[in-house]
Amino acid sequence: MITIHDLPKENLFTGGHTACPGCGAAILVRNAMKVFGKNTVVYTPANCLLVFGGTYPYVSWKVPYHHVAFENTAVCSAGIKRALKKTGREDTLVVGFAGDGGTADIGMQALSGAAERNEDILYIMYDNEAYMNTGIQRSGSTPYGAWTTTTPAGKVIKGKERFKKDVPQIMIAHNVPYVATASIAYPNDLLTKLEKAKNMKGFRYIQVYATCPTGWRVPPEKTVEVAKKAVETGMWTIYEYENGKMKINIKPKLDENGNLAVPVREYLKMQGRFRHMTEEQIETLQNWVNEKWKRDLALERALSE
Amino acid sequence: MVERRLVSGNYAAAYGALRARVQFVAAYPITPQTFIVEHISEFVNDGIMDAEFMRVESEHSAISATVSAEATGARSFTATASQGLALMHEILAIPAPLRLPIVMPVVNRTVAAPIGIWAEYNDVMPQRDLGWMMMFVEDNQEVFDMIIQGYRIAEDKRVLLPFMPNLDAFILSHTYEPVEFPDQEDIDDFLPPYKAEHAHLWPDDPMAIGVFTPPEYIQEFRYQTEQAMQAAKKVIKEVNDEFAKKFGRDYHGLIEEFMTDDAEAVLITLGTVTSTARKVVMDMRKEGKKVGLVKLRFLRPFPKDELRKIAEKVDAIGVYDKSISYSAGGPAFVEVRNALYGMEKPVIGYLAGLGGRDVRYSDVRLMFEKTLEAAKSGKAEKELVWIGTRGVQP
Amino acid sequence: MYEVRFHGRGGQGAVMAAQALADAAFIEGNYAVAFPFFGAERRGAPVLAFARVDKGKIYEKTQVYEPDYVVVLDDKLPQLVDVTKGLKEGGMAIINTPLKPEEVELGKEVKTATVDATSVALEVLGTPITNSAILGAFAKATGVVSIESIEKGIMDIFGARLGEKLAEKNARAARVAYERTQVGTCKGTLKYPEEKKWLPTVQEFPTGGALGLEVKTDAGLVGLGSFVENKTGSWRTFMPVVDNSKCANCKLCWFYCPEGAIEMLMNMPENEGKNIKGIVIDYDYCKGCGICANECPTKAITMER
What we know:
The complex is a heterotrimer.
Chain A: H1 24-36, E1 40-43, H2 48-52, E2 54-55, E3 58-59, E4 65-66, H3 73-86, E5 93-99, H4 101-105, H5 108-116, E6 122-127, H6 167-172, E7 178-183, H7 187-198, E8 204-209, H8 213-216, H9 223-232, E9 238-242, E10 245-250, H10 265-268, H11 279-302
Parallel strand pairs in A: 1-4, 1-5, 5-6, 6-8, 7-8
Antiparallel strand pairs in A: 2-3, 7-9, 9-10
Chain B: E1 3-8, H1 9-19, E2 24-27, H2 34-45, E3 52-55, H3 59-72, E4 76-77, H4 82-92, H5 95-98, E5 106-108, E6 133-136, H6 140-154, E7 163-168, E8 176-181, H7 184-190, E9 208-209, H8 215-247, E10 255-258, E11 265-269, H9 273-286, E12 291-296, E13 298-300, H10 304-313, E14 316-321, H11 331-339, E15 347-351, H12 361-377, E16 384-386
Chain C: E1 2-9, H1 14-27, E2 31-36, E3 46-54, E4 69-72, H2 77-80, E5 92-96, E6 111-115, H3 117-124, H4 133-142, H5 147-162, H6 164-180, E7 182-185, E8 215-217, E9 220-222, E10 239-242, H7 252-256, E11 262-264, E12 279-281, H8 291-295, E13 301-304
Parallel strand pairs in C: 1-4, 4-5, 5-6
Antiparallel strand pairs in C: 1-3, 2-3, 6-7, 8-9, 10-13, 11-12
């Protein structure tokens, strides 16, 4: 277990980057690099991070950094790792930082292939629940009801009609050594998982909830507050899966009947992307969250010691 | 010790990778390239090839991993064909501007529709503009030799571009021919280990490779890549000559001329049709017909000066193509005619063998006859001649 | 023909302003085009948008280098960028500022119109978005387009994006600003540092463009770790101010700052070994997102304008 207080001073992802004010992905990446240290190679696909972390000739990364294309984070990272082995740098960590579109959608094939081969890489998905780099379009990871520019709040259809794709469970189905979910709002849990994954071998996947204030229509100062509310309402479950065992690390408050105590409405009302939602839609989403929470608990029981 | 064995074109390619001491391979099977992947699997699992071998889930991933491995500083290899090459297209644009000297043999096969598995160049021709050196081989010996030469040319500091030898589906890939494999020590001497000085992903000397880039810089990348491609012309010849001296096989560089002295008409060919064409030339010469052959080995870099020199001494030129750019003609024909701009000589394009239809002796002979006619009359009856198409007069 | 250059920040709606102006000119029977600067800037970064208006078809498909008018949406931008750059002889600057034209400082002494568009926007819209109000000032100051057409242009462009109600409010903001616009001449007293940019020739260009760590050039650093050259503090609207006497050294702000613009006093070399509490904020990079103030458990940080 490590905490904020164990982090070094030096930033390996420097200031001067051009992320929007309050960017959750920037919080994640900057601190993750403190955990990983200098003996790391980073790959990013086409995403916000590609642009705000580097625009030629300026780069925020202070470690070897590579980009090839959008849909191949897992396999390019794996190519780097194997080539490092052949050039005498076996102990170097290779990390791919991809967004939810580059992971849950277009990157899924390469991700699945690399996981099945148990490539020795750490794959981090920063989940901001839409294609933000291209200007807020829905991805498989966008939640039910959310407004995006491709799921507008129209007169007939309001927001996304399908539910969020559960990528961590897909990764667990690949039987890889480590799968975890985390959030920028729970620093010590996040850092501990990054540290653990750093020191493991084989394919590791961490999906980190990372607020996008611009795309979610949230004031930038609320980035962390919204992320906390996601966990409190059960919209985002924080757990880890390691060596076949699953554990929920942070449990939301429950009422006397064991149901989620904080209604999902509390989370929705903080964000402009949910403003248009009807009572019926909110109820649909609440039911989905209730079911998801029950399923998460059942999975934890089924996959415990 | 020099070995001589009867092997397939696919084996020659795979064994070339082994003998080039490739450090990284990522590949995905596709007919008719599959045996390359299988042979490499055998070499690796038998412990005779010391490479990281990634058995990926698609060609897109094969080329992606190969690009990243090469960017990391390892000598890297992949191979594909047809639909697989088409799937790679996006990533094929990456290695040249980043100056990553990958070698990737392509077994040329028709691209759907309609779906087929036989030789056609409509897989490789759409990849011409991406900065790869592209050459076409004639036999299995050349397959092996051009893997070895390919790394030497690609890794030359003046070049640093990816290299793509093309071999015809089945006609080479599945055909067994005698191939000579030089002694490993001699190959090592000819092809020393790759030193990734300009680009590597090493924490001990960190670099950024592939940064998001605004217009202020991209045009300089393009010019630099063009300069490298131009420089490759000289390097290809140098490497060819050194190889010839060391191993006794001379491919003459960008093009090879065959019986072009005092020729009135020449046919320019790519790939295995060249072999049949040699036989036709020898026979027609015996009949007193002044014909010659030019083997267009390299399509990129394009041997413009060499072709113009030949055009100066002949009266008509025919160009054989195994694919068509609809409404424009065969790609090799279009490029040759463009290179000969301003020279008042008839240039005729011949299309035959599309979709893998066999290009027969008589087909090639017809190309020579028609080119010779144009040489005598001073003009081409037709600009584009389809040979062997039912219902279409050649 | 006249050409207009809009200066704003990502998210301020400079592009919509250019479109609404073009639409207004189009309504009056002109040919008009509006287009953004072809960049990839994030929210908060300085951005440009352009409009061209002529009687007949406009063939130029290039950016505007010598505008007849420059329109400045953000009153702090003239301190950062020379908004009068390339302005044609006899051209005019239309600036959002509470100052009178004679009090405004720009890089050149030019005809200047001012309006406190921020106050207008706050009064009429309830938010400090000035892209509609500034168009009222444009109409008043230049006379090349009527305020009625501007109102119609706003209804068209803003209406399609934000709905009729909000469009009406924006049209009203333009009208109010129109009434309050003053015209005069500014002072040409501002000096700008020479713009330094690394623009290597093909011969100087690194092979394949690969750049190492903190490469020194005449124009400053390039390569890995060089984004520090980009001082994003200029994006800030609100500024965090710390009262270190309340600081508990919890390090949450230090963790959450997306820019890495907060340093713990205990991490400073001069404080080594001392038992010291507090932080120091690097205003060169702070974008003013406000997460630090929002998350501080002891309320040691406040946001000030």
